[in-house]
Amino acid sequence: MSKTRPADYPRAAAATLRDTPEVRDAVTAATRTFDTHRRESWAQIDADRWRDWCRDVKEHVLTHLDDFLEQAETSLVANGVTVHWAERAEDALGILEHIVDAGRVRRVVKAKSMLTEELGVNAFLEGRGVHVRETDLGEYIIQLLGEPPSHIVGPAIHRSVDDCRRLFHDHFGTPLDATPEALAATARQALREEFLAADMGISGCNFLVAETGTLALIENEGNIRLSTSAPRVHVAFVGIEKLLPGMADLSGFLQITARAATGQPIGNYVSLIRGPRGSAESDGPEEVHVVLVDNGRTTLLADDVAREALRCVRCGACLNICPVYRQTGGHPYGFTYSGPIGAILAPALLGLEEAMPLPFASSLCGACADVCPVRIPIPDILLHWRERAVEAGLTPFVERMGVRAFGAAAGRPSTFSLAGGLLRYVPWALGGRALPVLGGWSAERTPPELSREPFHKHWKEGIE
Amino acid sequence: MSAARDRILGRVRSAVLGRTGADHPGAFHGWRPAPSSPDPVAGFTEVFTSAGGEVVHVAGMDLAAAWVRDFAASFAGVSLGVLLPDDFVPELSLAPAETAALGVSMATGAVAETGSLVLDARDGRRVQLLPPTHIVLVRRADVYATLAQALEVVSRDPPSAVGLHSGPSKSADIGQILVKGVHGPGRVIAVVVE
Amino acid sequence: MRVALFATCLGDRLFADACADAVRLLRKLGCEVDFPEGQTCCGQPAFNAGYVEEARRMARHTMEVFAGAEHVVLPSGSCAGMLRRYYPELFQGAARARAEDLAERTWELSQFIVRVLGVRELGAGLRGRHIAYHHGCHALRELGVRDEPVGLLRSAGADVVPWDADEECCGFGGLFSVKFPPVSTGMADRKLDSLPGVDVVTSADGGCLMQMSGRARRRGMTTPFRHLASVLLEATA
What we know:
Strand content of chain C: 5-15%
Number of strands of chain C: 8
Structural class of chain A: alpha/beta
Strand order of the largest sheet of chain C: 2-1-3-4
Low-confidence stretches of chain C: none
Mean pLDDT of chain A: 94
Low-confidence stretches of chain A: none
Number of helices of chain A: 23
Largest sheet of chain C: 4 strands, parallel
CATH superfamily of the largest domain in chain A: NagB/RpiA/CoA transferase-like
CATH architecture of the largest domain in chain A: 3-Layer(aba) Sandwich
Distance between the termini of chain A: 64 Å
Number of helices of chain C: 13
Number of domains of chain C: 2
Helix content of chain A: 40-55%
Shape of chain C: globular
Strand content of chain A: 5-15%
Largest interface: A-B, 101 and 76 residues
Radius of gyration of chain A: 25 Å
Distance between the termini of chain C: 22 Å
Order of helices and strands of chain C: EHHEHHEHHEHEHHEHHEHEH
Oligomer: heterotrimer
CATH topology of the largest domain in chain A: Rossmann fold
Structural class of chain C: alpha/beta
Number of strands of chain A: 10
C-alpha cells in the first residue's frame, strides 16, 4: 500500500468509511479501551497537579533547550556514546548510512519508533540491501502487511484478530483459527532469531536525561530491551525536544506517560541506557550512537503558539479521545503522526501547504486538551494554524469569498436581514448541484427547516 | 557534523530568544492518596501482582537458594545472573541464556509505587530477557517506596543499562487481546529476601 | 433584572420558536427582556475557520450592539463561548477591555438561570419524561456548563437518561460538517447509535440539534429533537 499525503485526507477518510467500515469499529473499540484505562488510572492520582508539573518541567526545558542539549551531549560523550546531529531527515539517514557501512551492518532489528517512521529509516536501509525487521508485535504485523502505523501506541489497532490470523496463515502456515497466544508464540520464535542474528539495533528514545546522559525507552513486550542489548551496535534516534533535566524528572514522566497511554503505573519494561557495555559486562552493545534530530522541530520552537506541541510525550491519549480520529484511524491523515497531535505538528514538520487540510480536520471539540498529560492547548494551536492557512491563501476560493461576503453583511444589519430572507430560496434539494457546500450536507443529512418567520420579525409583532 | 550541531543550536537559541521565566517547578511529589501500607514490600507486591507478576517471600538467602533449587528442578536448563551470590545454587543443570528454560537474576532494587524490579546490566541482560520464565531475587532492604528513590540509588553507580521490569512481557497488539511472553519472559517471579 | 437576548444568526432563522420560548421563560422568571436591534452573527463560524479579520469585524459590531446591556443571554452555548472566551483574544488595549467587560456579562441561557438568577427549580412540567441531554462541546468545555441544564431538567421531574456518548462531539463543528461530510456524519451516527429510547433529545446548541436531527431524519429515526429553551419553558408548566 503506498503512503498517502495529508491532502488525500478527505478522499481517504471517505474511502475508509465507505469501503472498510470495520476499521472504524476496530479503532473505536481499541481507543475506547485505552481511554477507559487512562481515566481509571488518573482517578488514582491528582491528575491536575501531575499535568501542571509535567507542563512546567517541559516548558523549563524548551525555554533553555540549547543548554540542555549541550549538557546532554557532554554526558553522553562521557559515557562513551557517539553523538551525531542531524538537521533534516536526509542528514539523519546519511549518518545512519555511515554507521552501517563502518560496521558492515547487514541485519537490523528495530524497536518501535515514530521518529524513525518520520525519517523513513526502513525504506532507506532496505533500499541499500540491509535486512530490517520490526520487532514490536504491532509494528511486525504492519510490516508484514506493508502498511504504515495507524496509531502512536498501537500501530495495528485498525486490524482485527481475524486479519492477523489470515496474515500469519499466509506467512507461516498457522491455522486460520489460531489463538492470539499461538500467533504471538509464532512471532516470538521468528523474532527471537532476528534479535540474535542482528548486527544493529535501531530505536527511538522517549526521554533523554541531560544530567546523566541516560536514554529512557518505554515498552511492554521486551523487544526494545532485546534490540538494544543483543546486537553489537545500537543507534538511537532522538528528537531534540525529548530532553529532561534529571533523573528525578524522569521518574515523574515515566509514570505520567504510562498512565496517559494505557493506564499502567509504568511501562512494563523501561530501558535506562547509559552507553556501550562495561568492561565487566558479558553482554550489551559495543557501540552506542545517538542521533539528535531537528527535522522541523526548531521551526516549531520558533512559533510562539505552536511550540507548545513540543511538550508531547507521544502517549496517544489525544488520539484515543478524538471523535474524528476514531472514525478512520490514522492512515487517512497521510502523515507519521495522526489525530490531534498530528494535525498540529504537520504544519511545522511538513510545511503548512503540504500539511493541508489537517488543521481543519477537526470539529474543535476540545476533548484532546482535556486529556493531554502535558497540557498542550491543541484546539488553540489548530486555530492558530487555520489563521495562518487563511493568511497564506490556502483555503478554497469559494469559501474565502463566502466568508468575506457573510462578514461584510453581518456588519450591516439590513443587508444581513435581506440576505437571510433569501435562505428560503436555497434549493437544498438540489444539493451539490446548486452549491458544493450544500451537497456536503444533503448527501447524508436532511436539510434543516427554516422557521416560519425569523425571530426578529416575531419580536416586532410581540411575543405572547 | 559539527557544522550541523552549530546550526541546530543556533536555530534553537534564536527560537528561544526573549522567552523568559519558565523556572523548574521543583520536585515531583507523586501526588496521590497514601498507599494502603507503609511497607514498601507490601506496596511492591500489590502492584507487581496486579500486573501479572508473582511474589514469593523467603527469610534468608540460603532459603532463597533452596526455593530456587526446588523450583528449577523441572526446568530443562537454567541460566544464572552474575550478581547472584557465588555459592548460590551449585546443583542445577546450567544452560546459556539463549536456550535455558529458566533465568535467575539478582535485582539491585525494586520499586513499590510502580511495582518494578531494577535489573542491572552487570547481572547479564540476556538472562533477564531470553528464558521464558524469570526468577528475580531482591533484598527487602533494596525495595524503595518511590521510583525517584530507586533512580537516585541507581545513578550513584550506574551500569551501561538498567531495565525496570514490572511484570511479564505482554502485548495487546493482536485485536486488543492481551497475550503474555511475546519477547521477554511470560512468567516472572520476584523472590523477596528478608 | 434586564436581559438583552442575542438570538444568534442560527437562532434567528432556524430556531425562532426556541428564541421566543427563551423570551417567555426569562419573563416568567421575572426578567425584562430586550432584543437589541442590529444584532447579526457572533462571528464564531468565521473565527473557527481561521478568518480572524472577518470574525473581528463581527465581534466589533456585536460589542457595539450590546454595549449597554446589563446581561447578555444566548440560547447557544457555542456563541456564548465565542463571546466569553474568544472575543477578548481578538483585541488589544481599550477594545480588549471592552470585550472582557462584555464577556463578563454574557451567559448561555441555562447558565444564566442557575448562576445569575439563582433558580434551580423551574416547576414540575417534565414529570415522567425521558430526556437525553447532548452536551455541546463549547458549552461543556469553554463555559463549563454541565450541571446547570441537567439539574434544571431533573428538578422539573425529567428522567435524564444515561447516554454513553452524551459528552462526545456530534460532528457539527461549523464548516467542518460540510468540509468533511462522511466523517461528520459518522460522528453523528455514533451519537445516534448509542442513543437510548427517549421522548426527546435536547441541547443548548442549535447547530448540534441541526446536525443530529438532520442525520436522524435521513436514517428514518423519529426521535424528537428540541432546543433546551423550549424544553425548559415546558418545565415551568
